[in-house]
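User: quick one, sequence for these tokens?
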């Protein structure tokens, strides 16, 4: 624990004593039922993080009024929900952590969700030219504002009755209170708009009303943006002023986040961001106030220790790392760093926010997130000898889970190292952190004595020789090629080969494909000073499975910043020795190209499974050899399959 001694010192927020400096911040889950009531699944999810050692658990936000409640979330706009919140509070307390309730009115965050409930309006401080007329905006009157203040106060009183140890006002990310604080979204000319003091007035009135509702000694924090992350938005200098004003109104702590969820990407920084992008701004805010400061945003265990020991903040809010490993605090306190399932900041956990088919939650690193009751696995009654063919993510995870269940596993990989296509992902700039997942799996397999055979491809003959009880085929996928004239020319290469260093890119470069790999390769090349153009048959980031919004927008913003030319909704007709030919308004257009890099998707590599048909051996398929998909889906499929063998 000496490596993390500062992180495990007790700390106080007002009168609330916390056993360490690790806080689980509020994150959306969709774990309530369709009527907005608590579920066993939700209770298990938060209790697992409390048992894992976090000092304070803050569940998903509580809507303070009926018009701000999302589907499948747990509101607090009337007394009927108090018992549900009490159930959560009791579970978290019993598991050893303190419990807080975050109060919010969604406001403009409805734009990020993409769904405006029937009959509801998007409440805003003022109208702006970018607010499209197809949305039901409502500019708040002063009477509306005062009514909202009372909603927050009433919800805070319910939170106290429900067993909360602290109440937090959500005033960041573009929610209703946040939109008043920002000069970008608040253009009012009355006492609630204009200068910093006026823009902070609404939040101050809420803090003062909550203080009256819960009493002088009850802990109260306010979560604000340190920056809106966009030109014309809130700056850290203004945020520091607002923090001082909110402290004066009665806040016991300032929790620092950033970004406008419907516009910028700072609120959930993904892998292209550096570690701790808001730490420096939180430090400036800390210098402006006397109450504790909490900082969030891509903060891993090692950085968290530096933040606390260096006095940059008093607490760290570790959201996604606690999704990846609910036992994170216990593991680092016990010195079990190698056992950590580290968050890789891929943001696959956010898919459910904009893609209903993604389920309530997902995680590339932890397939059991929001499924805590299903893990650990039940031991198998009759162990089997299992061959796993393929040492990529799916194969390694299958080997791990099957071994956990008690099977005897032999893992085979045709290359001389484990990792498969994941190693290519790790080679991209900004994605080096992805290697934490494969390194964790390698350590686990070695520690638990799993037989690993490198440089050995599984064949029908090998299976007949070894005579296993079962074979798991995890042979992955291979890149697609374009079916157009010239696609086989020597200067046409696959994105995977370029990333892996197997094929160079020279001269004028055209990247064909506009999803993540294509975007990442184009950015990488342009940052090296290369002449690069993107051609894609659909819109940027479109064509198939919907991409995670924050990561997509982070990459798209970078493409715009770098002035990379894009030909969208353009089909490649031919590749010549010096050009890519596309149609444009009924004519042909030639884009000069000395190198063409293809990133047009993947196809399953499932020949082995077909070769094993009819042998009388139990055969299973897992991962991209079934269907190419993102890593969180692969991880979940592997866990589900392992539970059935």
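Assistant:
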């Amino acid at each position: 624990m000496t490596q993390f001694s500062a992180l495990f010192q007790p700390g106080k927020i007002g009168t609330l004593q916390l056993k360490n400096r690790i806080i689980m911040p509020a994150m959306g889950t969709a774990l309530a039922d369709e009527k907005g009531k608590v579920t066993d699944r939700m209770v298990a999810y938060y209790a697992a993080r409390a048992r894992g050692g976090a000092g304070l658990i803050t569940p998903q936000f509580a809507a303070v009024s009926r018009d701000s409640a999302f589907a499948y979330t747990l509101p607090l706009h009337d007394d009927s929900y108090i018992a549900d919140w009490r159930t959560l509070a009791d579970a978290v307390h019993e598991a050893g952590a303190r419990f807080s309730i975050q109060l919010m009115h969604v406001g403009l965050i409805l734009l990020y969700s993409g769904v405006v409930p029937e009959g509801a309006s998007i409440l805003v401080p003022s109208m702006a030219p970018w607010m499209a007329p197809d949305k039901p905006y409502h500019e708040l009157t002063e009477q509306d504002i005062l009514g909202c203040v009372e909603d927050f106060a009433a919800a805070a009183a319910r939170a106290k009755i429900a067993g909360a140890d602290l109440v937090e006002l959500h005033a960041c990310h573009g929610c209703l209170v946040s939109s008043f604080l920002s000069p970008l979204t608040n253009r009012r000319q009355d006492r609630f708009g204009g200068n910093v003091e006026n823009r902070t007035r609404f939040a101050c009135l809420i803090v003062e009303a909550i203080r009256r509702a819960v009493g002088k000694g009850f802990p109260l924090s306010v979560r604000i943006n340190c920056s809106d992350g966009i030109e014309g938005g809130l700056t850290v200098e203004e945020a520091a002023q607002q923090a001082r004003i909110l402290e004066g109104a009665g806040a016991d702590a300032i929790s620092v986040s950033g970004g406008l969820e419907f516009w910028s990407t700072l609120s959930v920084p993904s892998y292209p961001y550096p570690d701790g992008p808001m730490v420096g701004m939180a430090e400036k805010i800390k210098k402006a106030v006397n109450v504790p400061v909490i900082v969030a945003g891509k903060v891993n265990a090692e950085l968290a220790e530096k933040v606390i020991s260096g006095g940059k903040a008093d607490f760290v809010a570790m959201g996604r790392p606690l999704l990846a490993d609910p036992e994170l605090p216990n593991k680092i306190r016990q010195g079990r760093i190698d056992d950590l399932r580290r968050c890789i900041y891929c943001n696959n956990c956010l898919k459910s926010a904009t893609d209903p088919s993604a389920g309530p939650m997902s995680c590339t690193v932890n397939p059991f997130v929001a499924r805590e009751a299903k893990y650990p696995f039940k031991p198998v009654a009759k162990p089997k000898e299992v061959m796993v063919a393929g040492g990529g993510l799916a194969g390694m995870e299958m080997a791990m889970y099957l071994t956990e269940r008690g099977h005897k596993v032999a893992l085979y990989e045709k290359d001389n190292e484990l990792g498969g296509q994941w190693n290519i992902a790790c080679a991209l700039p900004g994605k080096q952190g992805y290697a934490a997942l494969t390194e964790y799996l390698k350590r686990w397999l070695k520690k638990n004595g799993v037989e690993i055979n490198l440089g050995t491809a599984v064949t029908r003959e090998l299976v007949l020789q070894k005579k296993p009880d079962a074979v798991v085929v995890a042979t992955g996928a291979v890149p697609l090629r374009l079916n157009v004239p010239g696609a086989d020319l020597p200067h046409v290469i696959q994105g995977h080969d370029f990333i892996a260093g197997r094929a160079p890119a020279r001269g004028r470069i055209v990247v064909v494909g506009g999803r993540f790999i294509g975007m990442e390769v184009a950015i990488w090349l342009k940052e090296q000073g290369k002449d690069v153009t993107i051609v894609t048959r659909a819109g940027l980031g479109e064509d198939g499975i919907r991409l995670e919004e924050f990561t997509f927008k982070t990459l798209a913003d970078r493409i715009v910043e770098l002035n990379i030319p894009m030909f969208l909704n353009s089909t490649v007709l031919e590749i010549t020795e010096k050009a890519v030919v596309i149609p444009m308004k009924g004519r042909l257009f030639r884009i000069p190209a000395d190198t063409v890099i293809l990133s047009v998707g993947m196809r399953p590599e499932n020949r082995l499974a077909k070769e094993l048909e009819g042998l009388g051996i139990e055969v299973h398929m897992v991962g991209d050899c079934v269907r190419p998909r993102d890593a969180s889906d692969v991880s979940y499929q592997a866990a589900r399959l392992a539970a059935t063998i």
